[in-house]
Amino acid sequence: EDQVTQSPEALRLQEGESSSLNCSYTVSGLRGLFWYRQDPGKGPEFLFTLYSAGEEKEKERLKATLTKKESFLHITAPKPEDSATYLCAVFQGGSEKLVFGKGTKLTVNP
Amino acid sequence: EAEVAQSPRYKITEKSQAVAFWCDPISGHATLYWYRQILGQGPELLVQFQDESVVDDSQLPKDRFSAERLKGVDSTLKIQPAELGDSAMYLCASSSRTGVDTQYFGPGTRLTVL
Lengths: 110, 114
Prior knowledge:
heterodimer; A: mainly beta; five-stranded antiparallel β-sheet; 0% helix; 59% strand; B: mainly beta; seven-stranded mixed β-sheet; four-stranded antiparallel β-sheet; 11 strands
């Protein structure tokens, strides 16, 4: 069965304290890995798509990387407004659907 | 910026009642998805449409849930009768095509069944 595991479940950082979120997957035929940000009570907001191992994408303080077994979302010098739940999802060629992890809840304290 | 619209944003109902949710995808997006998200979990796909046709409804509890996209634009998801376990966030998403294409989500409808 396709598995998408995100760690840690929750992460507390001080403003300016850089860290990384992990997304590991056990799917065959990965065709794309997506990162979304979700604020409480709202729908997920698209951040990045990664298609192949070695690929990297950046947006402001966020950088996403992909290997053959996992993806990392690096957050550099985070600010309180970066507080949200970050969701990882993989698109598997066989099922032709997006499978989400449970997310990492990030809290950045001022 | 084009967005996915959903209504209502919140719905409180009693068990055994019928509820309906509406979604208007980004203009021109042929593919529409309905997801259910339980608190603390990631979204799970309920049904996927390509234009007006159902592509995947394998996870839709068909004894009580139904979904339609009659003209291939907006869509309605219905639950009848609602059960306590249906309390969740119902999310609609759309993409320009099927396959590995970016899905854009609406704000969701928070359903509480009492």
